[in-house]
Every structure is written in structure tokens, then in C-alpha cells.
User: What shape does this take?
Amino acid sequence: LMMGYVAGLGDKYAYYYSSEEASLRNDSLAGSGQGMGIIVVQHPDSGNIYVKNVYHEGPADKAGIKVGDEITAIDSVSVTERGYQQSVTDIIRELGETVTVTVLRDGKTRDIKVEYSRFIAQTVFGQMLDSGVAYVEITSFNGGTYTQFKNTVDILVSEGAKGIIFDLRGNGGGTVNSVTQMVDYLCPEGVIMTAK
Assistant: This one.
């Protein structure tokens, strides 16, 4: 019933969350995550699950999964046979449960067992480029994003960054507070935003 009321608003940014969904959403906005701790996309050539980012100190990181790995099977079921979307769904487990993923790295496959647990969701990923310009990807805005952002920028500046590219492509949004803190750090003078 409530879902119908919210849909009737005609506002594409209005959503209804069940109590369970709201709890997960609040955890996400607070900066805590649960699960494996990776960001994935479909590999354009093989169709496998390509690991784009790995959350620092998350379950996948602790198990040894690395950026650039291709997940070719989940619990011995091939990703290409099962299909990418269904495989991404299949990889989800409850807290405390485990999953065995087959990973292709440097032309060799290996099985890695990952136990699902809570972790601090990493939303800021930075690196120095060969040109001396730093690259910072921000995947969402939550309660931990500002601290990660400040630490990342400070490190890159201390390493001699001549400039910084901020990549917000695919960012799912989040809290206004974390965004204003980040902008305030970069531009301490003047009005950051107004709302009506």
C-alpha cells in the first residue's frame, strides 16, 4: 500500500523502503558494508565477473582477491554458463557464510574461499598517474566517505600531485553531509550549497 502511495507521487527520486531495506540502506549510508567487499563489472570479452575494486580490509581483500581478477565460477558453477547477472546474484551470501570463487589471474585459475562479514565500505580509490596528476574515484557518498577522501587527497598531494581528477561516474549518491564536507575541504571559502 505504502509503495503505491510513493509511486503515485510521480517523483523519480522518491522510494519506499521496507523496514529490512531501510536497515540495509541506513547501514550503507553510515559507511558500513556487509558481504564480500568488491565492486564488479562484466568483462567485455570473456563475459566473466571482472573485479574493478576491492574494499580495503574487506572479506575479499583478506582472502586474497585483487583488482583485475576475473571470477570465472562460483561454487564450481561457471559464470558463462549461468549468465553474468544470475552469477552476480548467486555470489550473495548471508553474514558468516562462505563462497568459493574461481579466479583467473595471469592466465592461471585458483579457488579462493571468502567468508562474508561486516566491513567499512571503501568509497574512495586514488592513484598517481604517470603524468604526475592524481586520479580519485568516488563510488558513493556515505558516513565514511569524507575521511577516506581527505586521507586519499592528503596522501596524493604529499606524493607531489600536480592536479587531481575526481571521477564520479557511476556514483550512486548518498548523504548531502558527506558531499558538503568534501567540497568544504577543497573550497573552504564561500557558500557550498543552498536548499529550498
About this structure: The helical segments are 2-7, 19-30, 59-63, 79-82, 84-90, 145-158, 176-186. Residues 145-158 form the longest helix (14 residues). Residues 68 and 156 are 22 Å apart (CA to CA). The longest strand covers residues 98-105.
